[in-house]
């Protein structure tokens, strides 16, 4: 039985946190009298009608898998479908693994017969069934003997994104899920050493790529101004939410710049089968360690033991949220919509940490080893302009911009007060809506958030390859860590990349010269060692003056290769194991004179200042590895030296005594 409670509202709500009623909170949290433990859990669904603020309704809704749908109040069928989904739940549909099991084992379907008794890999089917259940992926279909069982099998494979095949080694039927459930570093690599021939490279022309998918039951996805539309029908799908999720998956495939490729492999290809993924590494063809999914396999004949496979770029991971939850109400576009520039955005050369987060450390290190001083552009925006349906990052080394790649959205707040270089508690202009980020950035400084209390953050300063800095009131704080878009192009040190954020409405696209953006000077940031941290001068952080005869500078080492996951190391923390071969560059200047310009190995330096006249001593400290210097340097100035001493004549104290010598 599906115990459910449905709330429908077209207005603002009272915050449930302010309601002092334990029974209500027990119902939402599935604790107390209504809990999963005693079999009396209640699924609470909330439906917002014409209200896109889901921050309060999501606190009441305890079915996170489908989110809080925002629907158009003028569409009565949409309201009906959404409520029927809540009432019926996943139990109204059948698990695809159970359907496929019946197809394989039933003697009436054609898979089985009296002469051939099929055997299945039970563990494979159980794993698939568990996955489909977690994804709330259920199918409904009326099948009879008049339709071919192969057609039913293909429909189920298409909707559930799986492959039902016999394992050539065990002869057992098994289900292979097509999901983002692999580690790129563990995949087999196929390159010129085991590829005999590569042919039929089918790349979609950008202007002809499918950028809109229409699903039956009017679930429309509109992504870009010019629509190259296709209609996809999911014959076994009843749920609007599931149909929308499947449409997003298919749109990712149809809009891929690499549709498919045919490979002829040597005997190494014998271990591959339909649905497997591997890395295709043919850089000269623009296929540099691309994850590919196998569509079909021909294992050859006795005369020819070569294996021929057809494969496509793997873009199939099933979205966890429905597009119905986030898309605006379906309405007729306004012809006079004009694309406007994005107001708040961040564009920079991607740090090493973010590249590793997206591609894996092994892949990134190999790429940097081949061409160390390269860099990629990373970016994010905060909210699309009014009427915009799409924002993409376009880059250029000239006046010609390439095709924009879709850019992610992140939250942004402003500092409510100025902060110095040592403050670890910062206050924002308002509280955040979510906490799905790894780090934040203010100006050029990366900060790691240790905890959050409303609009206050406790942070670590100067993380990764950055150094603490002062930030003015109203400085923008971008919560973009782990949410940055990485532009696919690589650029070389010295390139000045013109980056523009292209927005599109249903009728127009902004001209690049009118778009928001900035020039990024590529420095090969990802390969550069992290700068020295935790710098003290005579035992003090940022002193204004130094007295005495000696200046002592001490600092802590950092390690770019080691600091790639988990809790970030803040600038004010002590030593970590230094990155191999890293040394330190120390420069001291007094007035316009350079006193010291040297490279040392140990994280400390002292210098006699007793002979210096009173004035500013500027200190510049950086890390260096194989002549490659850190992207940021520690810089600070202190006043050193003694005042000029005037000696008075003891007999004539009113006059100064000067002695001139030839």
What does this structure look like?
This protein has 10 helices and 37 strands. With 662 residues, the protein is of the alpha+beta class. Strands 6-12-13-14-11-7 form a 6-stranded mixed beta sheet, with no helix packed on it. A hairpin with a 4-residue loop joins β12 and β13. α9 packs across α10. It is globular, with a radius of gyration of 32 Å. 30% of the residues are buried. Residues 205-229 and 317-335 have low confidence and may be disordered.
- What is the straight-line distance between the termini? 110 Å
Low-confidence stretches: 205-229, 317-335
Helix content: 10-25%
- Radius of gyration computed on alpha carbons: 32 Å
Strand content: 25-35%
Largest sheet: 6 strands, mixed
In total, the number of strands is 37
The helix tally amounts to 10
Please state the average pLDDT score: 80
Shape: globular
Estimated structural class: alpha+beta
Lateral arrangement of strands in the main beta sheet:
6-12-13-14-11-7
């Amino acid at each position: 039985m599906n115990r459910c409670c449905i709330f429908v509202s077209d207005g603002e709500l009272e915050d449930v946190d302010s309601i002092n009623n334990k029974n209500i909170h027990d119902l939402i949290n599935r604790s107390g009298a209504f809990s999963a433990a005693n079999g009396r859990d209640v699924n609470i669904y909330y439906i917002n009608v014409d209200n896109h603020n889901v921050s309060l309704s999501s606190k009441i809704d305890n079915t996170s898998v489908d989110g809080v749908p925002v629907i158009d109040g003028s569409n009565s069928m949409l309201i009906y479908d959404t409520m029927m989904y809540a009432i019926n739940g996943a139990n109204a549909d059948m698990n695809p693994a159970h359907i496929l099991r019946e197809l394989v084992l039933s003697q009436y379907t054609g898979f089985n017969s009296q002469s051939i008794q099929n055997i299945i890999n039970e563990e494979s089917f159980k794993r698939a069934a568990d996955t489909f259940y977690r994804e709330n992926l259920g199918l409904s279909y009326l099948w009879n003997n008049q339709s071919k069982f192969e057609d039913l099998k293909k429909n189920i494979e298409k909707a559930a994104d799986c492959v039902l095949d016999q394992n050539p080694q065990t002869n057992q039927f098994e289900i292979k899920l097509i999901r983002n459930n692999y580690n790129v570093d563990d995949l087999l690599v196929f390159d010129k050493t085991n590829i005999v021939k590569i042919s039929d490279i089918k790349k979609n022309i950008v202007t002809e790529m499918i950028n809109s998918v229409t699903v039956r039951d009017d679930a429309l996805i509109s992504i870009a101004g010019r629509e190259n539309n296709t209609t996809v029908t999911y014959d076994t799908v009843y749920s609007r939410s599931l149909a929308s999720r499947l449409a997003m998956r298919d749109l990712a495939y149809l809009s891929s710049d690499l549709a498919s490729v045919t490979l002829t492999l040597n005997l190494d290809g014998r271990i591959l089968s339909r649905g497997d993924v591997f890395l295709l590494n043919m850089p000269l063809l623009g296929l540099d360690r691309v994850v590919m999914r196998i569509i079909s396999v021909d294992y050859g004949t006795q005369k020819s033991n070569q294996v021929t496979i057809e494969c496509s770029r793997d873009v199939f991971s099933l979205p966890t949220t429905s597009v119905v939850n986030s898309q605006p109400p379906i309405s007729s576009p306004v012809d006079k919509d004009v694309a406007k520039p994005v107001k708040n955005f961040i564009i920079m050369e991607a740090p090493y940490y973010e590249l590793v987060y997206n591609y894996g450390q092994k892949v990134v290190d190999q790429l940097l080893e081949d061409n160390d001083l390269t860099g990629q552009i990373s970016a994010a925006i905060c909210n699309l302009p009014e009427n915009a349906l799409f924002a993409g990052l376009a880059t250029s080394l000239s006046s010609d911009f390439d095709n924009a790649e879709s850019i992610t959205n992140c939250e942004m707040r402003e500092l409510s007060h100025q902060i110095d270089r040592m403050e670890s508690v910062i206050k924002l202009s308002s509280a955040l809506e979510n906490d799905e980020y790894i780090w934040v950035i203010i100006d050029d400084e990366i900060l790691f958030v240790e905890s959050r209390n409303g609009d206050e953050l406790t942070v670590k300063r100067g993380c990764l390859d950055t150094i603490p800095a002062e930030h003015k009131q109203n400085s923008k704080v971008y919560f973009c860590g782990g949410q940055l878009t990485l532009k696919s192009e690589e650029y070389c040190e010295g390139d000045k990349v013109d980056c523009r954020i292209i927005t599109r409405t249903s009728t127009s696209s902004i001209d690049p010269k009118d778009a928001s953006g900035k020039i990024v000077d590529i420095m090969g940031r990802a390969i550069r060692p992290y700068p020295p941290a935790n710098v003290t001068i005579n035992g003090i952080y940022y002193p204004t003056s130094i007295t005495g005869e000696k200046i002592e500078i001490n600092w802590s080492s950092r390690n770019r290769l080691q600091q790639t996951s988990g809790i970030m190391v803040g600038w004010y923390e002590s030593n970590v194991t230094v990155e191999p071969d890293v040394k330190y560059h120390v420069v001291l200047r007094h007035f316009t004179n350079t006193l010291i310009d040297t490279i040392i190995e140990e994280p400390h330096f002292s210098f006699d200042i007793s002979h210096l006249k009173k004035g500013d001593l500027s200190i510049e400290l950086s890390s260096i590895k194989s002549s490659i210097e850190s992207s940021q340097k520690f810089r600070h100035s202190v006043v050193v030296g003694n005042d000029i001493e005037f000696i008075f004549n003891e007999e004539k104290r009113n006059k100064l005594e000067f002695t001139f010598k030839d």
